[in-house]
Amino acid sequence: MNTLRGEVEVARGLINVGSEGRVEDPEKLRKELSESKKNIAIALRLRAEAEASRDKLIEERNVLREKLGDEALPAAPLRVPALDEGKHGADQAESDISSKKTKVSGKQQKQSAQPGQVFVDKDGRQRRWLGAAIGLGVVGAVALIVWLLIGTGNLLPGTNESPATAIVKEPAVPDAPPVKTVKPAVKAPEPVAKVPVAPIVAKLVEKPLPKKVVAAPEPVVPVVPEPFRDSLKGSGKGPLMVTLAADEFQMGSPGNSLNFDESPRHAVTLDSFAISKHEVTFAEYDKFARATGRRMPYDESWGRSSRPVINVSWNDARAYTGWLSKKTGQRYRLPTEAEWEYAARGGSTEKVWWDTQAAVKPANCFNCGSEWDGLRTAPAGSFDSNAFGLEDMSGNVQEWTEDCYHASYNGAPDNGSAWLIAECTQRVVRGGSYTSPLNALRNAKRSQYNQDARLDNLGFRVVRGN
User: Fold this and answer.
1) In what order do the strands lie in the sheet with 426-430?
2) Strand bridging mode 446-450 / 426-430
3) Cα 38 to chain center, whole Å?
4) In angstroms, rounded to a whole number, what is the distance separating the alpha carbons of residues 41 and 206?
5) Which side of the chain, N or C, has fewer Cβ within a 10 Å radius?
6) Could you read off the pLDDT of 301-322 as tens digits, one per residue?
């Protein structure tokens, strides 16, 4: 409002100068009077807006008093001296400008220079700065009103908070800079030291670490000794045998298998043993049958010689191992179930030891792709051997083992010995045959037969213990 008063005084001075004839340029005087009138009009409008803002804040204060109580806010009405005192002077300046505007134009002829003449400032930029100063004055007036409303310095009843923390809705003041409510300073938590990650990441991106070239591990090829044959007393040779070193392996199928009699998978530690390279053939078994007068098994008219012996019971196979032990002086027997699975895997942990993507499988089964599939047995050694040098561990004929059959491996021995019970009649059979589907040739696949059974797809192989 002081700026408004100053502007009014300037306007009055200009009017007086014009009325007394002390004007150097009447046209310029009229422009300055017109500019001064505009500034006064702006100041009057801003004053009116400030008064409206004050009234609105008073109304909001009354609403707060009704909500918080009569003692929460001061009861005395707010008063802004600058607004009240400057009103009459501004109105008077507006009247003087209007009444004396005609006097200036009537005295244009008296513009000659006179002694003691008063010159008006020729730089109109002062008026523009004046308008800006008026705007700043209005902002100060609004801030003063806000301070009067919430800056009483008394705490609100029932709280420990300062009035400065109360939320005051700011009035909308058109064409004027918004007044921002100053929030109380909140003590920030102690800063936590952080490691600057961005520079480190940038350096890593800029200079990537060289990739360490790791050579693929070479597959471990088990060292298999040369096969051997024990001599028979009198004449002849026993079956071709392969010695396997002591080792440990995981026996059975994993936990997600639906073949429950093949679980739980468990570790088994084996001593060294020797197992026949392929199933016992007709030629080898017939030598025992002739020597002992035992019944000659039927070959189904497929031929004898090198084909695996079939139609022999578990008792027949056990009788052959007893005869072989006497003829060689070594201890021969049927393989335990653990020994058989270890030998069949050939060091592999997969379902079968061969490549499952191969079109023709290295075995004789119902759908393996061989010429004997589903028809008859194949001569021993007709297919590739596994990594241990053993042949026909899968397919061709099923094979008797020493063990009694159990529905699971719970309680099975972990040293590779045979799992036997008293009065056992059901024996474990392994390996699948020429009539078995491909899935039945899995290394962990188990079957059971009565120990007196004789079938055209069931034979055996032998083990020599140390």
Assistant:
1) 446-450, 426-430, 398-404, 458-459
2) antiparallel
3) 68
4) 65
5) C
6) 999 999 999 999 999 999 999 9
SS3 at position 458: strand
CA distances from residue 211 to 58, 199, 207, 208 in whole angstroms, order as listed = 74, 21, 12, 9
Domain range 228-464, its CATH number among 3.30.930.10, 3.90.1580.10, 3.40.720.10, 3.40.50.300 = 3.90.1580.10
CA dihedral angle for residue 161, residue 164, residue 169, residue 172, rounded to 10 degrees: 180
Residue appearing with tokens 């009057």: 44
Alpha-carbon radius of gyration of the chain? 57
Which residue is associated with the tokens 């040369």? Answer: 226
Tokens of 343: 């030998």
Query: Is residue 402 within 8 Å of 334, Cβ to Cβ?
Result: yes
407, two tokens: 């529905």
DSSP-assigned letters across all residues of 201-241: HHHHHHSPPPPP--PPPPP-----PPPEEEEPSSS-EEEEE
**Are 444 and 253 in contact, with CB atoms under 8 Å apart?**
yes
Distance CA 305, CA 432 (A): 22
In the three-class reduction of DSSP (H, G, I as helix; E, B as strand; rest coil), residue 426 is classed as strand
pLDDT tens-digit series, residues 380-396: 999 999 999 999 999 99
CB neighbourhood size of 156 (10 A) = 17
CA distance 453 to 314: 7
Residues of the chain with pLDDT under 70: 1-26, 29, 69-133, 138-139, 141-223
Contact 393, 365 (CB under 8 A): no
**Global model pTM greater than 0.85:** no
**Where do the domains of the chain lie?**
2-102+124-165, 228-464
**Strand intervals (E) in 376-445:** 398-404, 426-430
| DSSP-H helix ranges across 107-124 | none
